[in-house]
Design brief:
single chain, about 160 residues, mainly alpha, 5 helices, elongated
Length: about 160
């Protein structure tokens, strides 16, 4: 007897069901990506708060060029809405298995390393706490990039 099921019994998208329950639906959502997004959502307020308080401290204690203080404060405030948008599209794209939302998540993710590296190395004064806080944020973004790209490739490959 032939062990392979007939062509009509195979799923049309090429994936097999991972469960033996009748009517079970296989999900392609990435649990590691969702965990990293949730961790980063929790970590983001700490990053923004530390950055703003650090800038206020440096502005009061250290001789700071006035035009650069405003620029750095604006970038620190810009991080929160940008990252919140990125988390929204990442979670939406992952949980709904939407390639377009994941692509937008990855496009917004391209700006994150520049902001983190700015606060890691290009500020007028960089404190050691700045280095630690933004290095962790950069590591979380790197993990999200890896899992996000693999999830996007998986969705595009299985769509057609």
């Amino acid at each position: 007897m032939n062990a392979n099921p007939p062509e009509s019994a195979r799923p049309q998208n090429g994936r097999t069901k991972s469960s033996t329950r009748p009517g079970a639906v296989e999900t392609a959502s990435s649990l590691p990506l969702q965990i990293l997004i949730s961790l980063n959502e929790t970590y983001l307020p700490l990053v923004v708060l530390e950055t703003i308080l650090s800038l206020i401290y440096k502005g009061l204690v250290l001789p700071y060029p006035p035009y650069l203080f405003g620029l750095e404060m604006a970038l620190a405030v810009l991080v929160y809405p940008l990252e919140t948008m990125r988390f929204f599209f990442g979670a939406k794209g992952n949980l709904t298995e939407s390639a377009s939302s994941l692509a937008l998540f990855l496009a917004l993710l391209c700006m994150t390393p520049f902001l983190s590296i700015f606060f890691l190395a290009w500020q007028v004064y960089v404190l050691s706490i700045d280095v630690w806080i933004h290095a962790i944020a950069l590591a979380l973004a790197g993990g999200q990039a890896l899992y996000g790209v693999s999830m996007l490739v998986f969705l595009i490959r299985n769509r057609f």
